[in-house]
Amino acid sequence: MILKVLTYPNKILYEKSAEVTKFDEELGKFLDDMYETMINKKGIGLAAIQVGKPIRAIVINLTNDDGLQDKNDLIEIINPIITRKENLTTFQEGCLSVPGFYEDVQRAENISVEFFDRQGQKQTLDASGLLAICIQHECDHLDGHLFIEKIGYRKRKKFEKEFKEKQKVK
């Protein structure tokens, strides 16, 4: 089922998400719905809070070498804890909750993350490049933060101005 993606400035996006404690069929169905929603909206990552559910769950599906999102490459991350961050890099980010806006954001290039899968099994993942960026971006959502908070004062003012202009047009 395609879920409604909340967009800026919805206050729910600024809530801190709660840890998942029940790894059951309901969670699995919700993760499936998150995946379907992310693909439908042409995203590569989605946090549960973006569809109005304040739990610490993320789905990520990057494109492969053929430019396709293969469901076999889907990563489901529940209750993530980033345990290592190394090297800084700058990457142009966008967000399904801030549609149509892209800006350079500085993040760690290499990370390690501990998390649980949908069955409640503990996992560890070392990530670099786009995957590391995406995990950090989605983890920010779980803590109630949007990428536009990381872009600096002048760029943020530019975003606010563009956002207000778009609202007038609607």
From TrEMBL:
E.C. number(s) listed in UniProt: 3.5.1.88
Cross-referenced NCBIfam families: pept_deformyl, PRK00150.1-3
Highest taxon listed in the record's lineage: Bacteria
Cofactor note: Binds 1 Fe(2+) ion.
Entry keyword annotation includes Lipoprotein: no
Name of the top EC class for this enzyme: hydrolase
GO MF, one example: metal ion binding
UniProt function note: Removes the formyl group from the N-terminal Met of newly synthesized proteins. Requires at least a dipeptide for an efficient rate of reaction. N-terminal L-methionine is a prerequisite for activity but the enzyme has broad specificity at other positions.
Taxonomy of the source species: Bacteria, Pseudomonadati, Campylobacterota, Epsilonproteobacteria, Campylobacterales
Record-linked HAMAP family: Pep_deformylase
Record: residues binding Fe cation: C95, H137, H141
Family designation: Belongs to the polypeptide deformylase family.
Catalyzed reactions per annotation: N-terminal N-formyl-L-methionyl-[peptide] + H2O = N-terminal L-methionyl-[peptide] + formate
Needed co-factor(s): Fe(2+)
Record key words, sorted: Hydrolase, Iron, Metal-binding, Protein biosynthesis
Organism of provenance: Campylobacter sputorum subsp. sputorum
Protein name: Peptide deformylase
Keyword Iron: yes
Active-site residues, Swiss-Prot/TrEMBL: E138
PANTHER family, alphabetized: PEPTIDE DEFORMYLASE
BP GO annotations: translation
